[in-house]
Amino acid sequence: MANLAPTSSAPGLHVSKPSPSEPATASAFCHCGASASARGDAQVGALVVGWNSNHGSAHTTGGTE
Predict the structure, then answer these.
(1) Cα(46)–Cα(14) distance, rounded to whole angstroms?
(2) What pLDDT is recorded for position 43?
(3) pLDDT score recorded for residue 21
(4) Closest CA to 6 of 65, 61, 56
(5) Environment class of residue 27 by beta-carbon count within 10 Å: exposed (0-12), middle (13-18) or buried (19+)?
(6) CA–CA distance, 51 with 37 (Å, rounded to integer)
(7) Which long-range contacts (CB under 8 A, 24 or more apart) does 8-13 make?
(8) How far is CA 12 from CA 22, 30, 31, 33, 51, in A?
């Protein structure tokens, strides 16, 4: 399987949950230079909310960096 983790040359958000009994994991890298990672369903959920509010496409719609 290819490495889907975001990088400075390929920014984005990657979330994985291999099975219902395993915790979710996520990594994010924004074109503004911000990066984050999370492990556990609640922490991954918070990372996704923050990404949607402040990074990625939010930069073009008035989000903060």
Answers:
(1) 14
(2) 98
(3) 95
(4) 56
(5) buried
(6) 11
(7) 8/33, 11/56, 12/56, 13/47, 13/48, 13/51, 13/56
(8) 23, 6, 8, 11, 9
Specify the pLDDT at position 15: 95
Reading the block at residue 32, the tokens are 């503004």
What's the 3-state SS for 19-65?
CCCCCCEEEEECCCCCEEEEECHHHHHHHHHHHHHHCHHHHHCCCCC
Digit-coded pLDDT (tens) for 12-34: 899 999 999 999 999 999 888 89
Which residues, other chains included, contact 57 with Cβ-Cβ below 8 Å and sequence gap of 6+?
none
